[in-house]
Amino acid sequence: MMIPEILAPAGDLERLQSAVLFGADAVYLAGKSFGMRASPDNFTRDGVIGAVKLCHERGVKVYLTCNTLPTNEEADMLPEFIKFAGDAGIDALIVADIGVLMTVKRILPDIPVHISTQMGVVNYLAATELYSLGATRVILARELSLSDIAVIRDKTPSGLELEAFVHGAMCMSFSGRCVISQYLSGRDSNRGQCAQPCRWAYHLMEEKRKGLYFPVFEDKDGSYILNAQDLCMIEHIDKLCGAGISSFKIEGRAKSAYYVAAVTNAYKLAVEIYRQNPKGYETPDWLLEEARKVSHRQYSTGFFFGEYNPGQYYESGGYVRDWDVVAVVDGYENSLLTVTGRNRFSCGETFEILSPGKRPEPFAVTKIYDEDGGETDIARHPMSVYKIPCETEYPIGSIIRRRN
User: Helices marked H in 89-145 — which ranges?
Assistant: First the structure.
């Protein structure tokens, strides 16, 4: 029985720590160059080295993105970046360009190379040829169905790993090389600078009636005709495994540390439930709810079940945000839980606490002590330290949250 890898995003050190703490088997991250997400902080070279050390101490792999389409000038700098990656001890490089792939294999012939979804692999022919060129894994195009993936698995070498996105935001261009952002804003999505114009509201304007806007879709707020729903496959773990996917990728290097923690934890627990009973797998309702307790757009299952309109969403480009982080656990001593506040909270409130590898539990606040030991009714100040009486010791990094 194949147990898939849970691959979590790490846009900075805080999100990396959340991914590792909440059960990721591997993380993917970027340096300050050659990465397809320019908006997160990403990692300096010392940061990459530190990330590798932290992850390897906990048995977690690190995949470094090198998946922009480099210009001629940047191509000159590529060999030095690849050598650095090898020296840093990363476990694989993610690439989206055939020239980058061959350069990596010449400089670091033994390092695993993963083919980015940006390369748009949709059939077993492309996957097999990339394997023959030295790729160890293909991150499959997002427009593939489960039956398509099963055929690729059946007709490619057993040594080739297949990875697929299972959760998170979807680009309206899917695996294509979208140029809308560059055209409208001068920000090149293929260089990590996407302005997300597919999330904007659009109207039509007839050239002789300037300033008079007509909605494309009959709605007073305009139309979001390019806006894709988010992907969520947590209730279909058994089907994903049955298709031969060996790595479940969570989108979200620009998302919050809470998002990374909650979604990673949910998929890790779902895979464990599958491992215990693969033939009778069923996702419990509380675990389905975990996917809805993070900021998200309306969910769909993308193309996995052969749909050709994988959940376009026309009402808005915004998020559903039903839960907030109240505080994060820093320690436990003398029956007191030390927390750092993230949002205002009060005595008498009951929250949920999310710990690594566990189902969330109710958490009641009976008293609050400030940094000086004085009792207070309200924790007013974000990022201040408070102590809360608690009979249970929760791990550092556990998250206290509430429904909006």
Answer: 98-107, 124-132
- Calpha distance 238→156 (Å, rounded): 21
Q: How far apart are the first and last CA of the chain?
A: 41
Angle 87-250-86 from CA coordinates, rounded to 5°: 5
Q: Which CATH number fits domain 5-173+227-300: 3.20.20.70, 3.90.1150.10, 1.10.10.10, 3.40.50.300?
A: 3.20.20.70
Domain 323-403 falls under CATH 3.40.50.410: no
**What are the DSSP E strand ranges found in 30-154?**
61-66, 92-95, 113-115, 137-139
CA distance 246 to 387: 43
Residue-wise pLDDT tens digits, 294-315: 999 889 998 899 865 556 665 6
Say how many residues make up the chain.
404
332-358 core/surface letters (b: 16 or more CB in 10 A; e: else)? beeeebbbebbeebeeeeebbbbbbee
Query: Which pTM value belongs to this model?
Result: 0.88
Q: Give ranges for CATH 3.20.20.70 in the chain.
A: 5-173+227-300
Q: Kindly report, residue by residue over 138-178, the tens digit of the pLDDT.
A: 999 988 999 999 999 999 999 999 999 999 988 766 665 67
Amino acid at 209: R
